[in-house]
Amino acid sequence: MTTAIPTSANKDLGTGRFRKNRGNSARSIGGIVAAIVIWELLSLSGAVNKNALPSPPSTFAALIKNFGGLSKSLFGTLEAWVIGMLIATIAGVVIGTLVGRSPVADAASETVVRMMRPLPSLALIPIAILVAGLGLKMTVGLVSFAAFWPIFINTRAGVRQVDNRFLESGSALGLKGLELLFRVILPAAAPLVAGGIQIAISIALIVTISVELVGGTGGLGQFVLLAQQANALSEMFAGIIVGGFIGWLLNVLFMNIVDRVLPWRTQGEIN
Amino acid sequence: MLEPVLSINHLQVSIRSRDGSMNEVTKDVTLELRDHEFVSVVGPSGSGKTTLLRAASGLRMPSGGEVLFEGRPVTEVPKGMAIVFQEYNKSLFPWLTIGKNVAIGAKEYPQPERVTRVEEALEQVGLKGFSTRYPWELSGGMQQRAALARAMVSNPKVLMMDEPFASVDALTRNHLEDVVQRLWAESNFSALMVTHDVGEAVYLSDRVFVLSARPSTILAEIKIDLPRPRSHLETKQMHRFVELQAEVLERVEEAGRESVGLPDDL
Ligand SMILES: Nc1ncnc2c1ncn2[C@@H]1O[C@H](COP(=O)(O)OP(=O)(O)O)[C@@H](O)[C@H]1O
Ligand SMILES: [Mg+2]
Asked: DSSP secondary structure string, chain B?
């Protein structure tokens, strides 16, 4: 009978098990409504200090009032995010592929990977500021550094774990070298690579906003920082909400792209 | 006499096991595949059929002996040889449509011809119109027919098959056997099939080799002198078919008895 798909893919980061989320939109809207209701109740009841939690209406008012400033800040954040993600994705996939397909490099990189994986990139912000100073370059550098690891780790695992039967099929068809790489190894690794990119999307956003928050280098982070310094609580929350929303949106967009580009990702396992 | 398309001479294959020791899977296998001949190798499960087929097709380096394809030593899968694997769901690429899977088999042909060849190959196996579907959208039998089309589209001299029908139900298996028989009769390739199914081997082959238990050697060669074309309904009722099947089965059981017998050094 057909054997179960080896779940070795799940050992590494991001199993590539994105849920089909189309039928879930009603539930996620329900979740958002519930969160807003709890928020409103908390701020009404006075259970949380009024100076720490603005009410939903005043936050939404601030959101609308600051639409222009928020859009501009969001654009700044996304600029660093996009450049950082591009660098991280290209570097992660290329280096991950080279390392994963070379037994020597693969073994040699094992320790580095084990060390880098749990390292919180946020802890590197002060060092990065010291080394590169404040600015887009430093932000992008730190973002791509942080986002590189999940993509590298998953690509390395993905190209290493390609089912031998796919490789034999490729050889039997006369594929070798680069042809085998591009037509068999990389497609077979693609779901795991996508899983790594998905993790990186959130990490990159967190790092971008954090750098802006610490360094005051523009973007949503600086917006929140300035609002906090001005004691404008509703504005601060508006900035935080925009950050959360954009993180959610980027994830959903990416999942939809993956569903379209790798249609066999889930279906392949049914057979 | 014509030189054989494929000769396997004193092939020996040892595989390094996890603990580092060498495990001799194939001890000494010699057989020849002549022009437009259908040969099967039968043996019990674990007797090293897949290993033999891998070594004979250049997917694995043998530890001893040699394999010659049209007189030249085999070091990788040679042009002119196509392989159909047992696990169709791991041999067809799920990221490609059926048409694109088959097109890889036809990559040696220039573009306008390639498209027609792919279409013809799909039609030959009854998959016309399924070109844009993905493998995982098809039944097991259809997937194996697609794998067959991918092998046939290169117009091979030798078709190697590793238990090609073992993963489908009995009715589909009968149908697939006849698809293979028809393709073989209409083309001019030679076929080497390994299987544990004695009836299947006798039904399709000109000669059947019986493999011993591991480390494997050839125990017997049986010539199948049944008239062609063969059909499940008629051929399998023939007295001669029943006789031949019994003969092969007897040798296979001998091999099986050997393997469960106590080792000499106990
Ligand atoms: N890649 C491998 N690594 C270690 N042992 C193997 C490997 N491939 C095959 N073997 C050994 O060879 C034996 C025969 O395997 P195989 O050729 O698949 O037999 P068959 O196809 O007849 O069932 C197996 O039982 C196993 O011990
Ligand atoms: Mg086998």
From this structure: -PPPSEEEEEEEEEEE-TTS-EEEEEEEEEEEE-TT-EEEEE--TTSSHHHHHHHHHTSS--SEEEEEETTEE-SS--TTEEEE-S-HHHHS-TTS-HHHHHHHHTTTS-HHHHHHHHHHHHHHTT-TT-TTS-GGGS-HHHHHHHHHHHHHTT--SEEEEESTTTTS-HHHHHHHHHHHHHHHHHS--EEEEEES-HHHHHHH-SEEEEE-SSSEEEEEEEE----SS--HHHHTTSHHHHHHHHHHHHHHHHHHHHHHSPPTT-
